[in-house]
Design brief:
Layout lengths: L3 H19 L4 E7 L9 H6 L4 E7 L6 H13 L3 E4 L6 H12 L8 E6 L5 H9 L17 E4 L4 E4 L10 H10 L9 H12 L3 H9 L51 H18 L10 H14 L21
Parallel strand pairs: 1-2, 1-4, 2-3, 4-6
Antiparallel strand pairs: 5-6
Bound molecules: guanosine-5'-triphosphate and magnesium ion.
Length: 327
C-alpha cells in the first residue's frame, strides 16, 4: 500500500497522463462503482470529454441493489451518457455489448478508447475482460496500474490508465469512497467507515436483517431517517460524516436536519454499541477480554465491500439535489 504522500504524487502524475492521452482518443469508457455511481465518478473527467463518445460502466453491479442500479441507468441515460452495468468481473454480456459499441465509435481510423476512473473501480479488470485474457495487472487495493498500456483488440485500441482521485475528498465523499474500498485506510479508517455505513444503511430492513444474522440485535438502528443528504458538487464540503441518508428505497424528504451528522456524536455512539456486539459475536477480544472495536469495524467494512451482508447501494438518483447535477 502506497503512503498518503506517495499516492498523492502518483495521482497528480496520473491526472496529467489522462489529460495528455485524452487528446489522442476517440472515446472514453469511464468506470464507476454501481453502489455509489455519483461519488465514485471522476469529477475532472467530465470537463475533459469535449464531445467524445462517453460510455459509463457501473462496475460491481453484482454488489449493488438491483432496483437502485436500474434507477441510475435511467438517470444517466437521461443525462446523455450511455450506461452499462458490470455484474461481476468478466461479465460476458457486458463484454459483448461494449465490444460491439466500441467497434462503432466515430473515428477517422480504428477507434482509440481510453478506460478511465477512480483507483480500484475495476478498469484493468474490464480491459482484461474485453481483451479475453489477462493483459493488465489487477488488485484489490487502489493504485495498482501505474503506466499507460495500449492493447489492440482487433476492431479498436484500448488503453488502461491509472486511477485518478478527485482533488477534494472532504466529508462524505471520503467516507463513501472508503466504504467502497476506492481509497485506502490512510484516508478513511474502518471505524469511521463503519459508523457511516450504519448511519446510511441502518434504516434499510435488509441491512438490519443482515446484522441480525450476525447476532447484532440492538440498539435500535435508525428506522425512518427523516432526511437525507442531497448529492451535489458541495457534498465533499460537509464535516466528516454529515450524510444522513436512509439508504435506497426510501423517499427523499429534503435536507438533513441540522446537527444530524453520520459520524457525529449519535453515529459514533451507535457504531460503538453495534461494533461491540460484532466483536463479542466474532470473538474479537483484546487483552482484558475487551471487545476489539477496531477489528470489528474492519470485519464489518470488509463484509460490506465483499457483498457478504447483501446487495446494498449507498446512493440513489433521488438523492440528487436538482436536475442536471453531476452530469
Ligand atoms: N465483485 C466485483 N468485483 C470487481 C468487479 N470489477 C472489478 N472487481 C474487483 O475490483 C478490484 C479492482 O480491480 P482493478 O481492475 O485492479 O481496478 P483498477 O480500476 O484497474 O485499479 P487501479 O489500477 O488501482 O486504478 C479487483 O479485486 C477486481 O476483482 C465487479 O464487477 N464485481
Ligand atoms: Mg488498474
Amino acid at each position: 500500500m502506497a503512503e498518503g504522500g506517495a499516492l498523492k504524487g502518483h495521482m497528480a502524475r496520473a491526472l496529467r497522463q489522462v489529460r495528455r492521452y485524452l487528446e489522442a482518443v476517440d472515446a472514453v469508457v469511464e468506470v464507476a462503482d454501481a453502489r455509489a455511481p455519483f461519488t465514485s465518478r471522476s469529477p475532472q473527467l467530465a470537463a475533459l470529454m469535449e464531445g467524445r463518445l462517453h460510455l459509463l460502466v457501473l462496475s460491481r453491479g453484482d454488489l449493488a441493489d438491483p432496483a437502485t442500479t436500474r434507477a441510475w441507468v435511467d438517470w444517466f441515460s437521461s443525462q446523455g451518457i450511455e450506461p452499462y452495468v458490470g455484474e461481476g468481473p468478466g461479465d460476458a454480456r457486458l463484454v459483448s455489448r461494449l465490444r460491439r459499441r466500441l467497434a462503432r465509435a466515430p473515428a477517422a481510423f480504428k477507434p482509440r478508447v481510453l478506460v478511465a476512473g477512480l483507483p480500484n473501480v475495476g478498469k484493468s479488470t474490464l480491459l482484461n475482460s474485453l481483451a479475453g485474457r489477462r493483459r493488465a495487472r489487477v488488485g484489490a487495493q487502489p493504485g495498482v496500474t501505474r503506466g499507460k498500456q495500449w492493447v489492440d483488440l482487433g476492431s479498436f485500441w484500448l488503453m488502461d490508465t491509472p486511477g485518478v482521485l478527485p482533488p477534494h475528498l472532504g466529508g462524505t465523499r471520503r467516507l463513501v469512497l472508503g466504504a467502497l474500498g476506492l481509497v485506502g485506510p490512510e484516508l478513511a479508517g474502518p471505524e469511521e467507515i463503519a459508523a457511516f455505513l450504519l448511519k446510511r444503511l441502518g434504516g434499510a430492513p435488509a441491512f438490519r436483517q443482515a446484522l441480525g444474522r450476525w447476532g447484532v440485535e440492538g440498539p435500535r438502528l435508525p428506522a425512518g431517517v427523516p432526511g437525507q443528504e442531497p448529492l451535489g458538487p458541495g457534498q465533499g464540503g460537509e464535516p466528516p460524516g454529515a450524510a444522513h441518508g436512509p439508504g435506497p428505497g426510501q423517499p427523499a424528504a429534503g435536507r438533513p436536519p441540522a446537527g444530524g451528522g453520520a459520524a457525529g456524536a449519535d453515529g459514533r455512539a451507535l457504531a460503538q454499541v453495534v461494533l461491540e456486539q460484532v466483536a463479542r459475536q466474532r470473538g474479537l477480544l483484546g487483552p482484558g477480554g475487551q471487545p476489539d472495536i477496531h477489528r470489528a469495524a474492519a470485519v464489518l467494512v470488509a463484509a460490506f465491500r465483499a457483498g457478504e451482508l447483501g446487495r446494498f447501494s449507498l446512493e440513489h438518483p433521488r438523492m440528487l439535489a436538482g436536475p442536471g447535477q453531476g452530469a
